[in-house]
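Action item from last week, closing it out:
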Amino acid sequence: MASQNSIVEKRGDMQMNTYLSFKGECEAAFKFYEQCLGAQPGAIFRYAGSPMADDVPADWSDKVMHGNLTIGGQALMGADVRPDQYEEPKGFSLSLQIKSAADAERIFHELAKDGRVVMPLEKTFWAARFGMVVDRFGIPWLINCEESDQPPEG
């Protein structure tokens, strides 16, 4: 008898997506990711008119109940969480694998603006560039670039 995991793998009935919680800034964060990362916008559902409208403060009717966008073929989802239920992100990072060192530099610096650099973007023994940053929305990012924009020596 096959295990439950192997059945799911064979059928391809599962996909994992990242879901982020925001403290009222989901729409601003998603617009920033569109600009900074070239993300493609998806659907945005607001609390107003939804069954959850009474579960959030009255001034939250325009906040995002659920939204999604696509970055590099991967779905990123998120929502504004009620203020009393919001918890600051910890214990994970979103990792971007970027081919161009110039793009890695640009994206790192855009994410760092009004955010916090945890580890500066620099050459490491495994990458042409690697750095860690928490953006202005509190989301932690790893920027990894395996290749250099420099032509090979020799």
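Closing note: Helices lie at 4-11, 26-37, 101-112.
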